[in-house]
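Take a look at my tokenised protein here and describe the backbone shape.
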Amino acid sequence: MMASSFRDCKAWSAENLPMSTSSNEACKLYDALLTQYVTYKNDETLGGFEGCLSAITAADPNFVMGHVISTGLNLVSTSSSARLDESLASAVRRTVELANSQEISPRERLHVKAMELSSHGNYPKACELWEDILVDHPTDMLALKFVQDAYFYMGAQLQLRDSVARVLPYWKPHMPLFSYLNGMYSFGLMECRLYDQAEKVAMEGLAMVPDDAWSVHTVAHVYEMTAQVDKGLKFMESREKDWQVSDVLASHNYWHWALCFIEKGQYEAALQIFDSQVFRRCKATGSMLEAVDASSMLYRLELEGVCVKDRWRELFQITQPHTDDHVTLFNDAHVFMASLGAKESRSSQRLLEGLQELSKEPGVNLQHQMGRTIGVPMCQAMMEYDRGNYNRTVDLLLPIRYRLVNMGGSDAQRDVFNQLLIHAAMKSEDKHHQKLGRGLLVERDAMRPNSPMTDRLMQRALALHI
């Protein structure tokens, strides 16, 4: 039986979020899954996500919201594509059929529709429905979490901030999961570059829940984006015991820690975190977030001139099965990095051709719609850089640099593409590109004063182009 702290049928109804099931156990398991989703934590006492996912189906096989949360979590992980993965596609269909065969509330019906739309990559429409739910039910945490993740995959920074701001007044301190709203709100503020406010809100969250890994994550971003490197290192180290228990996000927070070392030019320290934490966890879980972080980190180190080629080969074993997924352009770009790094040109070619093919008739899939204009030139730019064609890299990357936000991820994650453009411009034979490279460094310095990486690159630019 589920612990009494989780909400049963009556408790959900009391919060104006009634569930169409008579099984208290199913309602509590829903709450247990939601809690793990919000806290980024596999709770072993509950059997983790996996244990709860199988138990919820057993408790009430016809519980629509049980199917919505189970299938929705699978979709949000972006680890498999409903276009290719028959079991995921049939889970979506089964949820829709169940919803159509019984009396459920309008809120639940919207949840089903939004989940179905997101399975087709129609994030904008799905977000509209989750926001509709939140107008009438501002304390529906599942709608809020799903819409936050979808905005993140769309690079919709203002929406990320505002969707939380709108519901905040309706939440009260006694409500379950209330204290995690600070982390969510602070992340949206940070992506809108309101760094002081973001840090303040995140710190308030940490005062309530010291192990809120998402609030820690916001602060790590703030220090990264403002090049407060030593502050970032100190912060991550002093709170490591708190945030590493959130196993779903721990690897990503270690990644942020390693970025501080890369920024300082301390590559060995960064590689140690890569080996002992980021890649070790990536190998154990195969999670898409962790594979993306691992690719991004090796790519940054390689741009800095560090040799990481054996690590690429190992990482490629994990990314290779995702070559045909094309769930998000952001994932595609990072899977592409790994195939380039491992010198697996057949896989690189296959990914690129697959993306070109899907973007011809993208249908409602937002990511495929942007495939031709953003995804393809992005991958081609990396390929040209890999071949030493720096002029061509700049020509491909420069026109799309301000549109890359639409491929999703955070400013910090997308910074790898800014770095690529700077390196390509500096290495280009073209005098115009070299001037551009220096201009990009001046621009970077204005946004992140005192960045050791910018200083290093400036020195290099001056040495190269005397």
Q: What stands out?
A: DSSP finds 26 helices and no strands in the chain. The chain has two domains: 1-171, 294-466. Residues 267-285 form the longest helix (19 residues). Residues 282 and 290 are 5 Å apart (CA to CA).
